[in-house]
Design a protein that fits this description.
The protein is α+β, with helices and mostly antiparallel strands. Helix content is 40%, strand content 25%.
């Protein structure tokens, strides 16, 4: 089995395709590797392609009106992104970058359109993907509006715990490694402010910090402090 076919087969969107259909799709795809912090689009010259993350992790970002970077969402292996290329040119203010060393499969727009026309489940999957991603972003915005830096950071830590949390003896380890600057870019704050608030939360015994490592020692106490329901996998 070719590498690209393996990547395509491991995308839930293409699970229903037959081997010959996957092979046909693969023949039109390209794969590229990106080092950590490398821009993926608009740096690629494939603005009319939908992108599949084969390995690594990608951040979807936006430039704010004052020129700052805002992280809107993270993409995990097996997920598509850049799907708006199916319907309209990408927003010039939006871009994607590799948070970790990543391998990307570029699927031409015309091939995705053909699959969507021939396979209702693919069209439904694309629509569902866009809806869930928008829902996640809107939920984050809801928790960020009219709140202090401390409250915004706590909401973000809880969101990351719900999405990437791993139970460890000390508490809940965030299974995604983000710098203080990256955390600040998500909540619309500054690296210095995030560092101060994380230090305060550690002094209060609510979390434990390491090098690009955060463990929530008392996640329920954090949730209670911002009046947010907590839903942790396996809890």
């Amino acid at each position: 089995m070719g590498e690209k076919i393996w990547f395509l087969k491991n995308c839930a969107l293409f699970e229903q395709l037959e081997a010959d259909q996957l092979a046909e799709l693969e023949s039109h795809c390209l794969s590229r590797k990106f080092s950590r912090n490398s821009p993926i689009y608009p740096a690629t010259d494939h603005a009319d392609a939908v992108l599949l993350l084969a390995s690594g992790r990608v951040a979807i970002c936006n430039i704010t009106h004052d020129g700052r970077k805002a992280i809107l969402a993270f993409v995990e292996p097996g997920e598509l992104f850049g799907e708006l290329a199916l319907f309209a040119p990408r927003d010039d203010d939006e871009y994607a970058e590799a948070v970790e060393a990543s391998t990307i499969v570029l699927i031409p727009r015309q091939e995705m359109n053909r699959l969507m026309e021939q396979h209702a489940e693919v069209a439904f999957g694309i629509t569902k993907l866009m809806g869930l991603r928008r829902q996640r972003i809107e939920r984050r915005l809801k928790y960020l509006l009219f709140r202090s830096n401390r409250e915004r950071l706590i909401h973000l830590l809880l969101e990351l715990a719900e999405q990437y949390g791993k139970q460890v003896p000390e508490g809940v380890l965030l299974g995604i490694k983000l710098s203080h600057q990256e955390l600040a870019s998500i909540i619309g704050s500054t690296r210095e402010t995030v560092t101060v608030v994380l230090g305060e939360l550690q002094d209060e015994g609510k979390l434990q910090l390491g090098r690009r490592r955060i463990v929530l020692i008392r996640p329920q106490a954090l949730a209670d402090s911002v009046h947010r329901p907590l839903s942790l996998a396996g809890a």
